[in-house]
Backbone:
């Protein structure tokens, strides 16, 4: 088993996101139990994000750095470093209000 520094991962991926035309960078940091549990670090520069997409199942966003907005329909939730945002089981989008890094945790019940 290996320890993972989310702080180091966030810093490195924010640098990659800043250099990417999409303004984002991501990497799976943990995939367990035949991928029933997956944790992905997402780095987004201010103004970039993930367009509306289907819910991956039971999931949360842990904001590691920055400030993000998760929107579903006409409702939105904002999170800053240290905040945990439950992901709705509906189509939603994510936008970085400022340069941000989040940990997306998805638990599938396939």
Residues:
């Amino acid at each position: 088993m290996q320890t993972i520094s989310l702080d180091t991962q966030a810093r490195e991926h924010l640098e990659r996101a800043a250099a990417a035309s999409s303004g984002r960078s991501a990497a799976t940091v943990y995939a367990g139990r035949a991928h029933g549990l997956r944790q992905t670090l997402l780095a987004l520069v201010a103004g970039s994000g993930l367009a509306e997409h289907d819910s991956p199942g039971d999931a949360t966003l842990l904001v590691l750095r920055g400030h993000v907005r998760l929107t579903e329909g006409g409702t939105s939730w904002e999170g800053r470093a240290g905040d945990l945002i439950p992901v709705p089981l509906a189509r939603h989008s994510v936008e970085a209000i400022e340069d941000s890094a989040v940990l997306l945790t998805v638990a599938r019940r396939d």
User: Anything to note?
Assistant: The mean pLDDT is 92. The chain has one domain: 6-107. The CA atoms of residues 12 and 43 lie 9 Å apart.
